[in-house]
Amino acid sequence: MINFDIVQVFNVLIPMILSLTVHEYFHAWTAMKLGDDTASRMGRLTLNPIAHIDPIGTLLIPIIGISSGVPFFGWAKPVPITPLQFSRRVRMKTGVMLTSAAGPLSNLLFGLILAGILSGIAHSIGTEELLARLQTNQGITVALVRLLGWATIINVGLFIFNLLPIPPLDGSGVLAGFLPDRYHYVLDFMARYSFILFIALLMVGGEFIGYPVRWIVQGFSSLVGFPIWLAFYGS
Q1: Cβ–Cβ < 8 Å for 12, 63
Q2: Average pLDDT for residues 147-175, to the nearest whole number?
Q3: Rounded to an integer, what distance in angstroms lies between the CA atom of residue 33 and that of residue 38?
Q4: What DSSP letter does each residue of 46-99 carry, written as one string?
Q5: In whole angstroms, what is the distance from residue 217 CA to residue 157 CA?
Q6: Minimal CA–CA distance to 145: which of 40, 15, 4?
Q7: What is the pTM of this model?
């Protein structure tokens, strides 16, 4: 049953759009640094979310998922690359691996930066005062803290999800960079059955992805000195 909660949609969708934008930008930036300007020429080397939004994957499916309470995922328009344009200082498969890895790693770094900002807010007003404000569930500070909390978790989730070695996820490009050429039939097999693998992932993916997400978020919490899960206190 669809239960449209505009606040919840806002709290999740806005961070997701920003996180996907960062993800795609760093794919394009890395490709550019390696000599491939395909994405740049197509207007994708930008932090403007409009350039990266896929109406179905970035908006429709996440909104339906958020509103129905079922596990969901989202995607942006893939950044095009032309490996033949990579600089000769790197092997083509290495260039593909680096470009693929740039997106998930940017989400991990972005998540850490957001966690640091969240920690700064908590320490500036005091944890106890923040908890009191979160309990009221009102005010600009509460809205900002919840957005930062969601954004941190979404970025960590994107990092984990996109490193899965299932084509067309970035993990398949990373794995291709490490696999000897004679074993690339493994990726061909996974690409052939990627739809089935995605369905299986959606059925069991909550815990499969949720555990490492919680582990990394706990690590961020220890690093920045603030328990990030408190951002959802009183919600």
Answers
A1: no
A2: 93
A3: 12
A4: S--GGGT--IIIIIIHHHHHHHHTS------PPPP--GGGS-TTS-HHHHHHHH
A5: 10
A6: 15
A7: 0.91
- In the chain, what are the domain boundaries? 6-232
CB 156 within 8 A of CB 108: yes
Cβ atoms 111, 220 nearer than 8 A: yes
Of the pLDDT bands very low, low, confident and very high (cuts 50, 70, 90), residue 69 is low
The tokens 């989730």 sit on which residue? 157
Residue 186 φ/ψ, nearest 5 degrees: -65, -45
Catalytic residue among 24, 128, 129, 207: 24
Cis peptide before 168 (omega within 30 of 0): yes
Nearest to 230 by CA among 156, 124, 144, 122: 122
Residue 199, SS3 per DSSP = helix
Please state, in angstroms and rounded to a whole number, the distance separating the CA atoms of residues 103 and 29.
10
Enter the tokens of residue 56: 């179905």
User: In terms of Cα–Cα distance, which of 69, 60, 71 is closest to 200?
Assistant: 71
pLDDT tens per residue, range 6-47: 878 888 899 999 999 999 999 999 999 999 999 999 999 999
Question: What is the C-alpha end-to-end distance of the chain, expressed in Å?
Answer: 21
Active site residue 207: no
